[in-house]
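User: Quick sanity check before I run a bigger batch. Here is a single chain. Can you write out its predicted 3D structure?
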Amino acid sequence: RGSAASGAGVSVAANEGASATAPPKNISIKTNRNRNNNPRQKTWKLLDTDPISQLKTDYVKLYKSKKCRTVKFYFENSLVVDTTKTFRELGIGDGDMIYAMENSKVYKPI
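Assistant: Done. Predicted structure follows.
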């Protein structure tokens, strides 16, 4: 019984569009802190439906002891302006790198 009901739900979701109705997926992303050259970057485990603001809150909380008060994120050389958007909406997926610039430091694209 359970599999028949879930199967029907999947076919309806496929007709409506996979990106809008796909279930949340666990992703693992890395942040590069202030464009450093450290080979080990901080890894974050999130859902692709989480907003960037959640990463921002967690990031500042983690690096607060290292004097981080604010952070701006860059993905593919572009500033992430709208932190209410989800990782999925911004095209950020599993294994991607986000550059985190703290306390008004300037990001310089490669």
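Confidence is low (pLDDT under 50) at residues 1-18.

User: Great, the batch can go ahead then.
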